[in-house]
Design a protein that fits this description.
Helix content is about 25%, strand content about 25%. Strand 4 and strand 5 form a beta hairpin. The chain is globular, with a radius of gyration of 14 Å. The structure holds zinc ion.
């Protein structure tokens, strides 16, 4: 199933999610599309809050949607924004590492695309195997 989802399509879904971003404070919209091993795609956007600490990143929004619908294994995530490369923040790297240390990570902004891996973004990560 997941063979049908190309990197390009996943990136397009992340870009589409920019339309749903609620980012009145940072003015930095972020969209994400998380590909589960079973082929399902879970999308997310950042959801900011006047109490800044309650803000949710797009990546963790997508991850929570996925886990709450039974997906636990993931192969890739695409993240989109505008103006600069939207690499996941530290909290999102850790949250994604819990389920998918070998996740492929793609970011796109203003027509640019960069591809990397979660292991490169979070070397020596702390996960379930660490306990
Ligand atoms: Zn984040």
């Amino acid at each position: 199933m997941s063979e049908n989802m190309t990197d390009e399509k996943l990136l397009e879904l992340a870009v589409k999610m920019l339309d749903y971003s609620y980012s009145p404070y940072s003015h930095y919209p972020v969209g994400a599309a998380l590909l589960a091993e079973d082929g399902r795609v879970f999308t997310g956007c950042n959801v900011e809050n006047a109490a800044f600490g309650n803000t949710l990143c797009a990546e963790r929004t997508a991850l929570c949607k996925a886990v709450s619908e039974g997906a636990r294994k993931f192969t890739a995530i695409a993240i989109a924004s505008r103006g600069s490369a939207p690499f996941p923040c530290g909290a999102c790297r850790q949250s994604l590492y819990e389920f998918a240390p070998d996740l492929r990570v793609m970011v796109t902004w203003d027509g640019h695309v960069r591809k990397t891996t979660l292991r490169q973004l979070l070397p020596e990560g702390f996960g379930p195997d660490s306990l």
